[in-house]
């Protein structure tokens, strides 16, 4: 697969956002999201989180596995193991790049 296809697949993963707007539940093909209430965390697909962030409608919370302590723990686990250590997400590289692009802005 090329990078754009991998990014497309990664955008289906869910992340937590804190919206700054109110809206009812949205019915999407892959399932319902919401309702959106200001300052109340809600799980949405990554593509929606990025879109809302671009419009300054939410704050994206990074996944638990993206904190330094958890990454150090995974690194140590991989160094100690003779076998491959599973990554925290199937598309961790693409998710991380997208989040760093939009969390910084």
Short description, anyone?
The protein is of the alpha+beta class and 105 residues long. It has helices at 3-10, 46-54, 68-80, 92-103, and strands at residues 14-19, 26-28, 31-33, 42-45, 58-61. The strands form 2 sheets. A 3-stranded antiparallel beta sheet has the order 4-1-5. Strands 2-3 form a two-stranded antiparallel sheet.
Radius of gyration: 15 Å
Helix/strand class = alpha+beta
Residues in helix, %: 40-55%
Tally of alpha and pi helices:
4
The profile of the biggest β sheet is: 3 strands, antiparallel
Q: Encode the helix/strand succession as letters.
A: HEEEEHEHH
What portion of residues belong to β-strands? 15-25%
Adjacency order of strands in the biggest sheet: 4-1-5
User: How many β-strands, per DSSP?
Assistant: 5
Q: Output mean pLDDT.
A: 89
Unreliable spans: none
Question: How far is the first residue's CA from the last residue's CA?
Answer: 29 Å
Shape: elongated
Topology:
Blueprint lengths: L2 H8 L3 E6 L6 E3 L2 E3 L8 E4 H9 L3 E4 L6 H13 L11 H12 L2
Antiparallel strand pairs: 1-4, 1-5, 2-3
Helix pairs in contact: 1-4, 2-4
Family: Belongs to the GINS2/PSF2 family.
Main location: nucleus
Subcellular location: Nucleus
What does this structure look like?
The chain is of the alpha+beta class. It is about 40% helix and about 20% strand. The strands form two sheets. It has a three-stranded antiparallel beta sheet. A two-stranded antiparallel sheet has the order 2-3. Helix 1 crosses helix 4 (about 90-105) and helix 2 packs parallel to helix 4 (about 90-105). The longest helix is centred in the last third of the chain and has 13 residues, at about 70-80. The radius of gyration is 15 Å and the shape is elongated. Belongs to the GINS2/PSF2 family. One of its GO terms (biological process) is DNA replication.
């Amino acid at each position: 697969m090329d990078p754009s296809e991998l990014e497309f697949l990664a955008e289906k993963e869910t992340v937590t956002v804190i919206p700054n707007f109110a809206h009812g539940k949205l019915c999407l093909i892959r399932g319902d999201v919401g309702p959106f209430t200001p300052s109340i965390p809600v799980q949405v697909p990554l593509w929606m989180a990025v879109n809302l962030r671009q419009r300054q409608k939410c704050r994206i919370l990074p996944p638990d596995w993206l904190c330094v302590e958890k990454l150090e723990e995974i690194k140590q686990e991989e160094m100690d193991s003779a076998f491959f250590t599973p990554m925290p997400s199937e598309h961790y590289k693409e998710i991380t790049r997208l989040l760093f692009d939009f969390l910084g802005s």
